[in-house]
Amino acid sequence: MEYYTYWSILETPSHSIKPYSVFFIIFILSMLAFFSVLKFQKNDDDRKIHLILISLFIALSLPCYIYLKFFNHDHTAERISKLLESDTLKKVEGSISNYKRASEGKSVIESFEVNSVTFTYYNHSLYEFNHFGGNRSSDLYDGLKVRITYSEGGKFNEIMKIEFQKQIK
User: Fold this and answer.
1) CATH code at 105?
2) Which of 22, 72, 87, 124 is the most exposed place for a label (fewest CB within 10 A)?
3) Are residues 34 and 92 both part of a single domain?
4) In sequence order, which residues have a C-beta less than 8 Å from that of residue 37 and are 6 or more positions away?
5) Could you give the C-alpha distances from 29 to 26, 38, 47, in angstroms and in order?
6) 133 and 124 in contact (C-beta within 8 Å)?
7) pTM
8) What is the pLDDT of residues 155-168, one digit of tens each?
9) Parent domain of 27
10) Are residues 30 and 107 in the same domain?
11) Count of domains in the chain?
């Protein structure tokens, strides 16, 4: 059977934001602030202090950006891809059953089973930053054929990759 990737741990915001891009944004914002102070602030004492402080951000962010972009190679994507294909994670293949949505305090929890392996996740944005989460009720349903790569956890089995079976046309 053929599958396509619906979601992978590589697609989370914590893995898609590169460290060098953060320093580049700080650099750009610092440059904008520097030129704004130069153009619009008239008080000489405050102006000097602001320019010195902003210059510190420029002086720190530019070398950090250059180092992280050109000299420090991030191998996170390759490392996670190898992990997803390795035997250290478990895989289960089958149809989703017992799909449920339930409230637990202010959070909504969704859960389902595939071949008696239970998966549970939260439906809120903080959890979704580095995990499989969010409202998946329009995509996941009983009877859907999936292949899931997961890590066994104490409270929950953590989904690392979920693939849907391709529909035959």
Assistant:
1) 2.40.50
2) 87
3) no
4) 47, 50, 51, 54
5) 5, 14, 17
6) yes
7) 0.69
8) 788 889 999 998 87
9) 19-73
10) no
11) 2
